Each structure stands twice: as C-alpha cells, then as structure tokens.
Amino acid sequence: MGDDDEVILAGGNVTPVVRIGGTVRRETGPWAPAVHRLLERCGEAEVPGTPRVHGIDEQGREILSFLPGEVLADAAPEILWSRAILRKAARLLRRIHDAGAPLAADPLVWRAPRHEPAEVVCHNDFAPYNLLISDAAIAAIDFDFASPGPRLWDVAYLAYRIAPLAEDAPAFDPERFGSPDERIAELVASYGGDWSTAEVRAMAAVRLEELAAFTEARAAETGRDDLAGHARMYRRDAARLRA
Prior knowledge:
Layout: E1 6-8, E2 17-20, E3 23-27, H1 32-44, E4 53-56, E5 61-65, E6 70-71, H2 77-80, H3 83-100, E7 120-122, E8 131-134, E9 137-140, E10 147-149, H4 151-162, H5 174-177, H6 180-191, H7 197-222, H8 225-242
Antiparallel strand pairs: 1-2, 2-3, 3-5, 4-5, 6-8, 7-10, 8-9
Helix pairs in contact: 1-3, 3-4, 3-6, 4-7, 7-8
C-alpha cells in the first residue's frame, strides 16, 4: 500500500472510513469540533489507545491517527471474553471519561443527544466492535457519536456487549469465562464505580430502547433489513433485562 492509497476500513456503518498511510479519514459534520476537542483532551491527559487529531484534509474529511490492532469483536473467544480484556476495557473507558469530563458542561454541538446527569462525555458506542487489541494493549475508535451523559450510560452498554447481556454473544461460555453478573461486578470494580448489577442492567435496558429507536429509523431510511433485525434484538434484550 502506497502512502497516498485509500483503503476502505471495515465498519463505518454510518459514514465510510478510509485509511491513507498512518491516518484515517472520515467525513465531518457540525459535531466534529466537539469530538476533536474530546480527542485532544484525551491526548493532553495522555490517555493511551485513543486517536490523535491531525486536522481536515482537502476533501473536508477529518484526519485521525491510525490505531493498529485486531477488532476485539473478531477475536477468538478466549480473547474476546477474557477477564483481563474486560478489565482493560473498563479502565480505558474510565480514563476517557475523566479526560473529557470538563467538556460536559461546555456549549458544544454533538451528534448524539445529551443525557442527564451529564457527568462526562460518553463515547456512546464503547463496545468490542469499536475496540482494538494489539499485544497486551487495547484501543478505542469511532468517537463521532460522543455526547455528554452519565458515566453509567457507557458502562451499561459496555456491560451489555462484554458481560455479556446481549442475545448475540458468539461462543460465550459462563463456565469458562464467568457468569454475566460476575463479569458486570468485575467491570464496575475495574472502572472504579459503585453501581449494583441491578442498576447496570436497568440502565442497559434504557440504553437499548433508545438504540432500538435509532436503529429502526436508520433501517427505514436505508432499507437495510440487517438494521431492522438488530433493532428487534435490542427490543427483545431490553424486555428481558426489565423482566
């Protein structure tokens, strides 16, 4: 691959993402300055595993540093469901939250809705498909839907995906990797929170209902049956968590 060659990266469900050399390019919108400020705060706080901002290219796309690694969602089960990975993900999320917390009260334009109490700037999609693993390190990508919200909003969605509480949890075996409730407790402890398992489950249900509505709207807009299927799963999982 040449330094100027564009390579389409996997993901980018909402907008296409390409790699050019050691950078990633993606279209921007009114939310970009806020997201870039969040990433700059992460850089200032020396949070590892977060992209650095390198401006806007001639096509109006943001330029972010390329983070190497394998997408966690695609990793073998013994890696995807590793308790060590769960702890590292929780600690990274805490560092991102702490770095961006001062921005939560600023009058910035975000792409996703604000949720109260706005304690921090939430990633809003902090999950294995947006986490990269390389050797012993973990990194996070796709911050474009970040917005202010409560810490638990992000923690609960991470728990939904990595505890896991989701219907689609390939090859998860509680005998090998621990029960979802045990893993939620470990996630919360690694983050440094004091929420109960019941509180995490309850917030996950609220989060999934909003995600289902968003995904249903996207499915109607694009005609994609896969998105409609995802929305139905979120509804089922939310109902199960509330039961």
